[in-house]
Structure formats: structure tokens, C-alpha cells
């Protein structure tokens, strides 16, 4: 779900920027480590919803039900 990925990426970058402002100056290596950490967290959150959607590809009703549930949980349109 592209919309879910975009939503979580938007949250990730906004929260990372807030964190970086609070931290003050950080090195390029530190920033890269924080970028990697937050990206990995988002990817782990996305893993099972996307996996379940792929697994339900042959079952249109189940897939649509999952899509609707994911949309509700994450506040998507």
C-alpha cells in the first residue's frame, strides 16, 4: 500500500527532524545512524501488513477486507 508507506515515511521524517532539532548539532555519521534506525522501524511496522496483503492476492474479498482494516487503523482515506 503506497499510501501507507508514504504516510509512515512522512511521520518518520517529521519526527526525525524534531529529534534532530532537540539534539542540536550531530555528525553526518550520527545523522545517518538515526536515518537508518528510523527507516528500519518503519519497514518493520510495514512488513506484516504488506505481507498479509500479498498473501491474500488470490482472495479478493479477504484482500479488500484487509485493505479497509489497514486504512482504518492508520487513518488513511
Number of strands: 0
Radius of gyration: 16 Å
What general outline do the C-alpha atoms trace? elongated
Number of domains: 1
Q: What is the residue-mean pLDDT, rounded to a whole number?
A: 94
Structural class of the helices, strands and pairings? mainly alpha
Helix amount: over 70%
Uncertain segments are none
Please outline the major beta sheet.
none
Brief description of this entry?
This protein has 77 residues and is mainly alpha-helical. Helix content is 84%, strand content 0%.
Keywords:
0% strand; mainly alpha; 77 residues; 3 helices
Explain how this protein is built.
The chain is about 85% helix and about 0% strand. The chain is an all-alpha fold and about 80 residues long. The protein has one domain. The mean pLDDT is about 95.
